[in-house]
Design goal:
Distance between the termini: 39 Å
Radius of gyration: 13 Å
Mean pLDDT: 95
Largest sheet: 7 strands, mixed
Number of helices: 1
Shape: globular
Strand content: over 45%
Low-confidence stretches: none
Structural class: mainly beta
Length: about 120
């Protein structure tokens, strides 16, 4: 069964850090464009970051630039989202998604595969 699984969410104080991971069963993440998305209560889902399939280039939403870093680890077969200097407005459920088309994933928020999400809460 093809499945994406996120982990690493939790409660953190403002200014703190978390590392989210995205792993997969049934598919090789190296063959896919991988994106991180988030959805806060009462808000629409938004793209946070994406890593391309071919070049490994990463792109970030303006709201997280300089604070979040996305990376692939082919040996561990995982994709990570390192989140630093977290703010209360980063509170959301974070999802990873995989698709073979960059524009479809990053431009249209559409993907062949989505994880179930992991909750990140930033609060003092």
């Amino acid at each position: 069964q093809l499945q994406l699984v996120e982990a690493g969410g939790g409660l953190v104080q403002p200014g703190g850090s978390l590392r989210l991971s995205c792993t997969a069963s049934g598919l090789d993440l190296d063959h896919y464009v991988i994106g991180w998305f988030r959805q806060a209560p009462g808000k629409e889902r938004e793209g946070v970051s994406v890593v391309s399939r071919s070049t490994g280039n990463t792109f970030y939403a303006q709201s997280v630039k300089g604070r979040f870093t996305m990376s692939r680890n082919s040996v561990e077969k995982a994709v990570y989202l390192h989140m630093n200097n977290l703010k209360p407005e980063d509170t959301a459920v974070y999802y990873c998604a995989a698709d073979q088309n960059f524009e479809r994933l990053w431009g249209s928020d559409e993907a062949d595969y989505w994880g179930q999400g992991t909750q990140v809460t930033v609060s003092s």
